[in-house]
UniProtKB/TrEMBL annotation:
Protein name as it appears in the record: DUF1738 domain-containing protein
Limits of the DNA mismatch repair protein MutS-like N-terminal domain: 662-750
Annotated source species: Butyricimonas hominis
Composition skew (Polar residues), residue ranges: 650-660, 751-775
Signal sequence extent: none
SUPFAM superfamilies: DNA repair protein MutS, domain I
The organism's place on the tree of life at top rank: Bacteria
InterPro entries linked: ArdC_N, DNA_mismatch_repair_MutS-lik_N, DNA_mismatch_repair_MutS_N, MPTase-PolyVal
UniProt region (Disordered), positions on chain: 620-666, 746-793
Length: 793
């Protein structure tokens, strides 16, 4: 998921606090947790614009927590313009505003267009795109939090009359009758367009998947009609999210992975929230069931500890209620299986046709042998007769021994009622596609007196099967390097490729995988046929996840690649590039998974190495490109080499001294910390730090030559890209760490170069020294010209 801004994090925290507080208070309020005062659905005042379900939830919870008399809200600026400013010290509620200004192709995440371009598309093309929401956080205030009740008493009284709760306006028998009529109409809409609600004598409300129906106890078995209404709403919401239906898109996935928490408990929370918001639409209080009250502690803990749960709830709740609203408007909601099957059928109509059977049939009709071909549909009582010629109804156009009247009479004796005549080619040529021959008998025959003699039968089953049902060697969900799910297809006798499925299909796949393993093969084949047909029509949707995305790299420079697993460092890859063996680099689980799917594993490994070692390969190619320029300058450099030799030696001595001096200075400031010094592609530790760090990390300590490299006696190093793996190990071992990108050392080097009179290469070096580890007395933010230190736990 996209990293949230601090404003978004604060808004999410406020939402969690409101929801947790309301759920916790249900036990002491007879289960009531939302809209206990029976106020109307939240909206903006005075525009009358209603909020989305998830926004409405928190607007109502905020109103409840503040004891407000209505669910009418306003922006700070709007209130000020009306002369009714927000009162001092009042806290508002976050409002999630979505600006739909970009659209992405459902099957190609790289294809993103502007809203202007989207509006210019044809309706059929628009279906291929979905909006990308740009979320903004705004703050709303209830009108009771403003001076409106004092500035405009008459206007406020009108607002209470129209949007106030039961406390202000009461609840009469007329209101109850209106509720009965409204809810009965709602159930009729659900029956016709989503899922029927039926009476059941078991006393246990439930959604039955086999019959696709909600079963409810009779109304008299509920203490109050409102309880019956909300329980029916709970079951209807459950039906929208069932894996066989998946009318809503469902779960938000963490790092592209299906949820690993208790799905039933999370789904129960979705059901309670969505049904509660629907009760809010009806102007009724919402209650938790006894079973749900037992889960409140679990939900609150998950809301606090799982940072993506609040986003998952937003997606699930909004989608569930969107499905219900569509059904209320008269839009038929179908099973995902039926929708996909219809989509696949529509796509197949656009696929190129195959005519293997027709081509084969055209070879057999013969004037000499008096042979004809019969294509008989026994069930439909129809027959196609392919003659060598003379299929037209013209007089004197008969082929000797193939009288059409006799042929038709012979077939009628076999129960055929409709006979059509064709030629192998020409205007009356016989050329249906292979799918046409399903359930039909194809045979070679000839007329013998007044009867039909069958000579042989043609087996068209393989051609029909290939036309109607594509076979696949592999069908699997895989991830790309950006953690996006793709469907990998390996059609029989064809090269494999990947397609990015709709989010709805991805969620359906993983929900089925988690909840109904018996159905996963059906879903897998269903998606394979759908996206195979789609990719055949639009080949640009095919994605190759087995090649490197790094362009202009010569793979021939990679001689050998080895991928292996280690207990300590996980999955590693090493490569021999230009004859030099590289230090191992880590693979992601996604790259490891794709390796086992690749048709040519060796080729995939080379592409994988090209991705992992792109910096080295690109650096080498850049050097090759500038080789010519380098040769031209070699002569000039050789002339000055002798004059600068003494100066260079002096520079090295000064640099060594300066680097050791810088290391000592940082060590004096942080004597108890391990100092990691960035050197090219490695972080190094020296002297005692090297010995201590090596024992923790399991790396090798190297003894340096007499005098010490850069003034040190021993060192230990590890690749810079392993810092995120090794740093936690050092911290867990109780060490404080200074990460030094060597600003002082580079500065000292530059100074020594100037003092020695040597020529600089013109580049300015920048760097930082960062301290991380256990808490110290420093605030971690002090800066100087020489270094910047950041303290972290």
């Amino acid at each position: 998921m996209k990293e949230k801004s601090q404003i978004e994090k604060n808004a999410a925290q406020k939402q969690i606090e409101l929801l947790s507080s309301a759920l916790s208070g249900a036990s002491e309020a007879d289960g009531h947790w939302l809209n206990a005062a029976g106020k109307h659905y939240p909206r903006l005042y005075p525009q009358g614009v209603s909020a989305s379900p998830f926004n409405a939830l928190f607007m109502a919870l905020h109103s409840d927590s503040k004891g407000c008399k209505t669910n009418l809200f306003t922006l700070y600026t709007d209130a000020k313009e009306r002369g009714t400013s927000v009162r001092e010290h009042e806290q508002g509620v976050p409002f999630l505003y979505y600006n739909w200004n970009r659209y992405v192709n459902r099957n190609n995440p790289e294809d993103i267009i502007t809203r202007r371009d989207y509006l210019l598309l044809e309706p059929e093309m628009k279906e291929q795109y979905k909006g990308i929401h740009n979320r903004e956080i705004r703050t709303l205030f209830n009108i009771d939090q403003t001076t409106f009740p004092y500035v405009d008493e008459r206007g406020y009284d009108i607002a209470l009359k129209t949007d106030g709760g039961i406390t202000e306006n009461g609840y009469s028998e007329s209101d109850e009758r209106k509720l009965h009529i409204r809810f009965n109409d709602f159930l009729l809409k659900m029956r016709d367009y989503l899922v029927p609600v039926r009476s059941d004598g078991s006393g246990m409300p439930h959604y039955e998947t086999d019959r696709d129906a909600v079963y409810m106890p009779r109304q008299r078995e509920f203490k109050h009609y409102h309880d019956y209404v909300q329980e029916a709403l709970r079951q209807i919401v459950s039906a929208t999210g069932h894996q066989q239906r998946l009318a809503r898109e469902g779960m938000v996935m963490k790092n592209g992975m299906p949820p690993s928490e208790d799905a039933l408990k999370q789904e129960r929370l979705v059901v309670e929230i969505a049904s509660g918001i629907k009760m809010l639409e009806l102007g009724l209080p919402a209650r938790l069931t006894e079973e749900s009250r037992k889960m409140v502690d679990y939900w609150n803990r998950e809301l606090k500890e799982n940072p993506i749960l609040i986003d998952a709830l937003e997606s699930d709740v909004n989608n569930a209620l969107e499905v219900i609203h569509k059904a209320e408007k008269g839009e038929k909601i179908e099973y995902a299986t039926l929708r996909n099957r219809q989509k696949t059928t529509d796509l197949r109509d656009q696929l190129p046709k195959h005519y293997f059977v027709a081509d084969e049939i055209s070879r057999y009709p013969s004037k000499e042998d008096k042979n004809i071909v019969l294509v008989i549909d026994r069930q439909g009582k129809k027959a196609d007769v392919v003659l060598p010629a003379g299929a037209s109804t013209e007089v004197d156009n008969e082929v000797p021994g193939m009288n059409k009247a006799r042929i038709e009479r012979a077939l009628r004796l076999e129960g055929i009622e409709n006979v059509r005549f064709f030629n192998p080619d020409g205007a009356l040529g016989y050329r249906p596609d292979d799918a046409y021959f399903a359930e039909k008998q194809v045979s070679l025959a000839r007329l013998k007196n007044w009867t039909m003699e069958v000579l042989s039968t043609l087996d068209v089953t393989p051609a029909v099967k290939q036309a109607n049902e594509k076979c696949f060697d592999k069908i699997q969900m895989v991830q790309d390097d950006k953690n996006r799910w793709a469907l990998y297809l390996k059609p029989e006798n064809e090269p494999g490729y990947s397609v990015y499925p709709d989010k709805e299909d991805v969620n359906r796949f993983f929900t089925t995988l988690k909840q109904a393993m018996d159905d996963i093969d059906k879903v897998r084949m269903e998606l394979a046929h759908k996206y195979y047909a789609l990719a055949e029509i639009k080949p640009d949707l095919k994605v190759d996840l087995f090649s490197t995305e790094t362009r202009d790299i010569d793979l021939n420079r990679i001689q050998r690649v080895c991928v292996f697993k280690t207990k300590k460092d996980g999955i590693q890859c090493t490569a021999t590039i230009d004859g030099n063996r590289m230090q191992p680099r880590s693979l992601t689980p996604q790259q490891w998974q794709r390796m086992w799917l690749a048709e040519d594993k060796n080729e995939y490994k080379r592409n994988l190495a090209a991705t992992l070692f792109a910096d080295i390969l690109q650096q080498g190619q850049t050097q090759d490109e500038h080789a010519g320029e380098k040769q031209e300058k070699d002569a000039e450099r050789q002339q000055t080499a002798e004059t600068t030799k003494d100066s260079a030696e002096k520079t090295v001595q000064n640099e060594t001294s300066a680097q050791r001096e810088s290391w000592d200075r940082i060590k004096a400031k942080h004597p108890d910390a391990l100092q990691l010094v960035r050197k090219g592609d490695f972080y190094r530790m020296y002297n005692d730090d090297a010995e201590k760090g090596a024992s923790i990390l399991g790396v090798t300590v190297q003894k340096l030559s007499e005098g010490g490299e850069r003034g040190f006696a021993q060192s230990a190093e590890f690749p810079y890209h392993k810092l995120d793996d090794y740093l936690p190990k050092l911290i867990r071992a109780g060490e404080r760490v200074v990460i030094c990108d060597a600003p002082e050392m580079e500065k000292a080097r530059s100074k020594s170069l100037q003092q020695s009179g040597s020529m600089s290469d013109g580049r300015q070096s920048e760097g930082t020294a960062r301290e991380t580890g256990q808490a110290s007395g420093k605030d971690g933010n002090e800066e100087s010209v020489e270094q910047r230190t950041t303290l972290r736990r």
